[in-house]
């Protein structure tokens, strides 16, 4: 049984805001060379879901697929270190796009080219733009049912998939025939740590690279949405030095100012 | 926009020191003692840079988040400002470095010099300790034991004095040997010209034959200077490391933690009317007609002084504070290319109920209470060829080499009664090699592996014995210390091509700058990173010479 996990490389959400650069003309945010990217956290949970499936189904082959402009191989190879059998990368400048359609179409083309998949797992959304569109378009392209927001994934009777779906106040169990596309959410749990020896072995492996031109990618329907503008909120700081004879006096004066300006309100007021 | 002199307040200081780090707390005392009215401007709330302590890893414990091993009693400022009277006190255990190996064997170094006057740190030779160390080494190598005796003689006769002079003297021009280079011309000094260019590994293999001392030498070198086995360590590090590995020098424990150094210096400075202004981040240096005349503050306003000293690193000084005064393409190119990829550590304390009970103590009593104790495999080949490789690839070495320092044995201010706290260290990679998310994971993994490793040597180091841990890595360090680029403590790699007259690169190694009235005093310059090194003292001497101020070193009767 082949499980394909779709991965996206994103800016590390822990990158300090001061290190992020807004490229206004290209309408892109750049993290800078000093801040390596990461595998989208939800997608890492997709790898974890696949690894758990393999714990109960020995014949599960895990293939990770990522498409994008340019990859940091050391980062992406974490998927191999934790146990994926194969990592496939499609790198092309045209894939540095906000538009989910060509991304999903390229993923679908890779899956078709490698002979299809029994199960496709995606993270619920990318932590960079939070659109959450790719799995929907991918399911459409592959002609598979889509089950979203799984916090538990299991294969039943070798031909069906069952998921426990995270809801705000409970959960929902869903079932579908394979092949299917599933999105996973953070309740599933974090990706396991690779062992040191697995990391060293992974360091010697190379991802399989497929050129975009080698793929039969479905055309993007036009018109596509466009990003018109991208801005970072402008924050300003006004610093006032409180003059007072001593500490308690300064504290009292600070409290007065906070109340006067409405920065804090006394209990009960809303 | 470049601020001008017009909007500035009237001159109220004779000297402004930018940054309130360790070297600012030293140079401000010297400038004030020369009669100048000095202001120290620190952007953060704390003074002292790397010379600080905090309450961690649990309430009632005291940890040094940055520098831990210090010998400030050997800095001229200790006597010049009566710092012992200001509360800076050292305790001197009679052992120094040791190592326990995986096979249960171990090595104890007993201090070749013994402190006979704790008030001044004055030492005398300790022949009984030399004999004990000799016997320890002889148990695994007669050749290395003989080398030890010969090196100790050479250390006494030549190295010790030259090392001290080198640390507190400005680099000499090219072709003029400095105090350490001069040793190459003395036939029986033990230092030959080739040692200037040997890698750490080459030095380890040249001086020793035993796997014990080769392993210890290669592991102790990064702790003292950040160099990995394939780096050319330079004479400065060679002499420094040899003095520690063979325990020529006694261990020194600063009472109350490293913070005591800063507290004593600031107390001394305040008596000399130095003004320490925290929360005063300098935005840029104001330059008129090629001369520094003051600083513009980030919070608004400016301050004027006819002398400006930057305690910030060269990149901050030239790329940020002087951003409107380009110093020319070649210099800028070199500023941007200073090498920072050394000195990255996992570093922190483990608070515990009882001290580790090392099984090696049963065979070699006392090894468990070495002030600097390494544990790890007796495997120089791993250190030589794979230690750094693993670190850069994984974030930590596959074979851990943990350094521990149980200061609370001697300094009871570090832990509540009946409890202890021990520093642990191993090396890791430059911050940029991993994402913030990965650093979180790697640090957790390192901590777990370190504690697991510890249990191999001291079985009582179970989770039940541990009260708390606080470990810092490069990602944490670079977030709070902008001069520790890539999160390394050395503030610029300390290998031969970035030491002495080449630190951080030849054109800016002289403490003066291309801007008149602007000087530098940080550890980005000679004699490099570490508490109590010489950059600020040397800068103070150069400023005194340039400005006709009293030659304080001469009045103290010092050669340098």
What's the SSE blueprint?
The complex is a heterodimer of chains A (270) and B (560).
Chain A (H helix, E strand, L loop, with lengths): L1 E6 L1 E2 L10 E3 L4 E3 L7 E2 L1 H16 L4 E8 L4 H4 L1 H5 L3 E6 L8 H14 L5 E5 L10 H9 L3 E11 L3 E8 L2 E8 L2 E5 L11 H9 L3 E2 L37 H14 L10
Parallel strand pairs in A: 1-6, 1-8, 6-7, 7-13, 8-12, 9-12
Antiparallel strand pairs in A: 2-5, 3-4, 9-10, 10-11
Chain B lengths: L14 E4 L3 H12 L4 E5 L11 E2 L6 E2 L12 H5 L9 E2 L3 E7 L4 E5 L2 E5 L4 E4 L1 H12 L3 H26 L32 H8 L3 H15 L8 H12 L7 E2 L4 H13 L3 E4 L3 E7 L2 E7 L4 E3 L3 E3 L3 H8 L7 H8 L8 E8 L7 H4 L8 E5 L3 H6 L1 H8 L7 E4 L14 E8 L8 H22 L8 E7 L1 H7 L37 E3 L14 H13 L4 H4 L5
Parallel strand pairs in B: 1-2, 1-15, 2-11, 6-17, 15-21
Antiparallel strand pairs in B: 3-4, 5-10, 6-7, 8-9, 12-13, 13-14, 16-19, 16-20, 17-18, 18-19
Helix pairs in contact in B: 1-8, 1-16, 3-4, 4-7, 5-6, 6-7
Report what the structure shows.
Chain A is an alpha/beta fold. Chain A has two domains: 2-214, HUPs (Rossmann fold); 236-270, no CATH class. Chain A is 26% helix and 26% strand. Chain A has helices at 41-56, 73-76, 78-82, 100-113, 134-142, 196-204, 247-260, and strands at 2-7, 9-10, 21-23, 28-30, 38-39, 61-68, 86-91, 119-123, 146-156, 160-167, 170-177, 180-184, 208-209. Chain A has a nine-stranded mixed beta sheet with strand order 11-10-9-12-8-1-6-7-13, sandwiched between helices. A two-stranded antiparallel sheet of chain A has the order 2-5. In chain A, strand 3 and strand 4 form a beta hairpin. The longest helix of chain A is centred in the N-terminal third of the chain and has 16 residues, at 41-56. Chain A starts with a strand and ends in a 10-residue tail after the last helix. Chain B has 560 residues and is an alpha/beta fold. Chain B has two domains: 5-51 and 258-337 and 499-555, FAD/NAD(P)-binding domain (3-Layer(bba) Sandwich), CATH 3.50.50; 95-249 and 340-480, no CATH class. Chain B has helices spanning 22-33, 76-80, 127-138, 142-167, 200-207, 211-225, 234-245, 259-271, 314-321, 329-336, 360-363, 380-385, 387-394, 436-457, 474-480, 535-547, 552-555, and strands spanning 15-18, 38-42, 54-55, 62-63, 90-91, 95-101, 106-110, 113-117, 122-125, 253-254, 275-278, 282-288, 291-297, 302-304, 308-310, 345-352, 372-376, 402-405, 420-427, 466-472, 518-520. Chain B has a seven-stranded mixed beta sheet, with helices on both faces. A five-stranded parallel beta sheet of chain B has the order 11-2-1-15-21, covered by helices on one side. In chain B, strand 8 and strand 9 (122-125) form a beta hairpin. In chain B, helix 3 crosses helix 4. Chain B starts with 14 loop residues before the first strand and ends in a 5-residue tail after the last helix. Residues 1-11 of chain B have low confidence and may be disordered.
């Amino acid at each position: 049984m082949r499980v394909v996990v779709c991965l996206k490389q994103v800016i590390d959400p822990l990158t300090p805001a001061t290190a992020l650069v807004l490229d206004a003309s290209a309408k892109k945010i750049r993290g800078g060379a000093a801040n390596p990217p990461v595998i989208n956290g939800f997608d890492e949970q997709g790898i974890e879901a696949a690894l758990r499936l393999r714990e109960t189904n020995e014949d599960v082959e895990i293939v990770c697929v990522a498409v994008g402009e340019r990859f940091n191989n050391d980062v992406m190879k974490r998927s191999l270190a934790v146990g994926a059998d194969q990592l496939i990368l499609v790198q092309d400048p045209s894939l540095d796009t906000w538009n989910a359609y060509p991304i999903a179409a390229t993923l679908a083309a890779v899956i078709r080219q490698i002979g299809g998949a029994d199960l496709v797992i995606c993270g619920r959304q990318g932590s960079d733009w939070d659109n959450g569109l790719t799995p929907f378009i991918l399911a459409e392209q592959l002609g598979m049912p889509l089950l979203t927001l799984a916090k538990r994934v299991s294969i039943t009777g070798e031909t069906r998939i069952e998921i426990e779906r995270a809801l705000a106040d409970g959960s929902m169990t869903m079932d579908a025939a394979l092949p299917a596309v599933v999105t996973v959410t953070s309740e599933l749990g974090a990706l396991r740590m690779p062992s040191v020896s697995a990391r060293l072995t992974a360091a010697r492996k190379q991802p399989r690279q497929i050129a975009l031109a080698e793929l039969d990618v479905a055309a993007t329907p036009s018109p596509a949405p466009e990003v018109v503008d991208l801005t970072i909120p402008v924050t300003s700081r006004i610093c006032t030095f409180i003059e007072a004879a001593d500490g308690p006096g300064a504290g009292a004066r600070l409290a007065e100012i906070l109340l006067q300006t409405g920065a804090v309100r006394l209990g009960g007021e809303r | 926009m470049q601020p001008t002199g017009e909007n500035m307040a009237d001159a109220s200081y004779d000297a402004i020191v930018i940054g309130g780090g360790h070297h600012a707390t030293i140079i401000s005392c010297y400038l004030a003692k020369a009669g100048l009215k000095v202001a120290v401007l620190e952007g953060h709330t704390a003074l002292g840079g790397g010379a600080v302590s905090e309450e961690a890893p649990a309430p009632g414990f005291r940890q040094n988040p940055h520098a831990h091993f210090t010998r400030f009693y050997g800095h001229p400022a200790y006597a010049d400002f009566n710092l012992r009277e200001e509360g800076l006190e050292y305790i001197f255990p009679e052992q120094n470095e040791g190592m326990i190996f995986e096979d249960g064997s171990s090595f104890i170094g007993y201090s070749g010099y013994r402190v006979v006057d704790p008030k001044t740190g004055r030492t005398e030779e300790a022949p009984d300790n030399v004999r004990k160390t000799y016997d320890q080494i002889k148990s695994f190598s007669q050749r290395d034991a003989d080398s030890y005796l010969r090196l100790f003689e050479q250390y006494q006769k030549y190295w010790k004095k030259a090392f001290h002079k080198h640390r507190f003297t400005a680099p000499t021009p090219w072709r003029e040997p400095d105090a350490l280079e001069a040793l190459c011309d003395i036939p029986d000094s033990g230092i030959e010209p080739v040692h200037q260019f040997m890698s750490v590994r080459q030095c380890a293999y040249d001086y020793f034959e035993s796997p014990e001392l080769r392993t210890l030498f290669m592991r102790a070198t990064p702790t003292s200077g950040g160099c990995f086995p394939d780096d050319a360590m330079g004479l400065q590090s060679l002499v420094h490391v040899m003095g520690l590995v063979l325990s020529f020098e006694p261990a020194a424990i600063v009472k109350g933690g490293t913070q005591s150094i800063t507290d004593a210096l600031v107390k001394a400075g305040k008596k000399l009317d130095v003004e320490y202004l925290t929360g005063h981040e300098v935005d840029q240096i104001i330059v008129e007609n090629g001369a520094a005349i003051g600083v513009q503050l980030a919070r608004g306003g400016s301050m004027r002084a006819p002398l400006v000293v930057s305690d910030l690193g060269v990149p901050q000084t030239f790329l940020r504070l002087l951003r409107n005064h380009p110093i020319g393409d070649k210099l800028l190119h070199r500023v941007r290319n200073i090498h920072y990829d050394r000195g990255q550590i996992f570093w922190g304390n483990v608070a515990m109920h009882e001290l580790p009970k090392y099984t090696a103590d049963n065979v070699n009593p006392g090894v468990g209470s070495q002030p600097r104790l390494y544990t790890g495999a007796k495997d120089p080949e791993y250190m030589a060829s794979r230690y750094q490789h693993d670190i850069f690839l994984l974030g930590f070495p596959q074979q851990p080499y943990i350094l521990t320092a149980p200061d609370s044995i001697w300094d009871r201010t570090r832990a509540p009664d009946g409890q202890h706290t021990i520093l642990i260290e191993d090396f890791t990679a430059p911050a940029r090699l991993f994402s913030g998310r990965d650093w979180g994971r790697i640090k957790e993994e390192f901590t777990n592996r370190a504690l697991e490793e510890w249990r191999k040597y001291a079985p009582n180091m179970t989770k039940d014995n541990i009260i708390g841990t606080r470990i810092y890595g490069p990602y944490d360090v670079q977030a709070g210390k902008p001069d520790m680029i890539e999160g390394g403590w050395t503030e610029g790699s300390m290998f031969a091509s970035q030491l002495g007259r080449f630190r951080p690169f030849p054109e800016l190694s002289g403490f003066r700058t291309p801007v008149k009235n602007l000087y530098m005093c940080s550890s980005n310059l000679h004699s490099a990173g570490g508490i109590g090194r010489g950059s600020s003292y040397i800068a103070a001497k150069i400023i005194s010479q340039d400005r006709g101020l009293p030659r304080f070193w001469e009045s103290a009767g010092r050669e340098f």
